[in-house]
Amino acid sequence: MVINPSLSRLKLPPKPKFNPNSILPSKPSHRLLPHRGFPPLRSSVFQDQFPTGDARTTGDNGDDDGSYGEVNKIIGSRTVSTPVFNDDGSVSASIATEYLIEWKDGHEPSWVPASSIAADVVAEYETPWWTAAKKADAAAISSLLADESTTRDPDAEDSEGRTALHFAAGLGSEECVRVLAAAGADLEKKERAAGGLSALHVAAGYGRAGAVRVLVEAGADVGAVDGRGRTALEVAKEVLAATPKGNPAAFGRRMGLEGVIRELEKEVFEYAEVGKVVDVRGEGERREYLVEWRDGGEREWVKERWVAEDVVRDFEEGLEYGVAEKVVGRREGEEGEGVEYLVKWVDLEEATWEPAENVDAELVEEFERANGNGSPSTAAVAVVPVEEEEEEVPVQ
């Protein structure tokens, strides 16, 4: 039986040698159905990145002479990127979609350009995936990925480069994000239409704190930038700044964005603790610091915005850092300068007197408790014999 014979016949290409492993595309697929499920954000900073409209293509099946085969179904897809050399000398990419066709006559499956396939055949393959994607239907996505009769690429793209993960992130479906991440979806994949946004950027811009948390747990890079050079944290802050205060309709959005900012700041600023800054390079937005990590990791160049202001300030003022082992003494500073503590350092032979603000609060508390004192502001002076020292360099 032939279903829609007028729309289901294609001219067969020469028989290729079929490799079953080639069903899975090496690059994300170029998919077709549009998204309609995102609530609009009334912000010029982060508009609705998923406009409505029918983006489906129609095939041109012509009646050229030659032998034709009847299409059974599409069992896979892939995106083919071809370099295009422009008149000005630049190189761009021409992106086209190909589908892996299963033929009714037993001809080995073969790749056929999307433009040569009828719209009904394409829709039969594409519609279930994008219907599930635009609803962030985790159960349907899971079922399609598990279907052994067809190959589903979790990184399949629509006509603007958006994947199911972009939709799940924008709708805030934590379950769907987990399903796609477990299936191997590319967490860093950037769409093409709205400025190179990753799923993390989309979740951040729509104030989906739960989706942000799941993406980060799955390994999404919080430092990755979009096409405008913004991190997800910066996107969330921009949208929050553009969202009106005191407007009941915007209250939920502000709460969501604030939750996103807390999640991302926790990851950015607690990811690693800087021991000290040892060098600097660049100016303005390109300014970077060479940092030494407290956990002993290899030194790295880090953008200025990711280094704590007090650490940068101390480096610029020429202050040195050391690792304190413990506090061994306490005294009142000269001329009302406040309390000073005698600190024993891990990497220095001699202990030094340091202002209270230069000493780790936990070490101070431990010292005061061991000496039976009250709060640091009222504690008695611990009598510790110390030799007079030469001029000191402030150490933190």
From TrEMBL:
Bias-annotated ranges (Acidic residues): 386-396
Compositional bias annotation for Low complexity: 1-11
Domain of life: Eukaryota
N-terminal signal peptide: none
Region called Disordered, residue ranges: 1-30, 44-67, 369-396
Positions of ANK repeats: 160-192, 195-227
Segments forming domain Chromo: 322-379
Keyword Metal-binding tagged: no
Alphabetical UniProt keywords: ANK repeat, Repeat
Keyword match DNA repair: no
Pfam family, one: Chromo
PANTHER family hit by this protein: ANKYRIN REPEAT DOMAIN-CONTAINING PROTEIN 39-RELATED (PTHR24171)
Entry protein name: Chromo domain-containing protein
Organism expressing this protein natively: Dioscorea zingiberensis
Organism lineage: Eukaryota, Viridiplantae, Streptophyta, Embryophyta, Tracheophyta
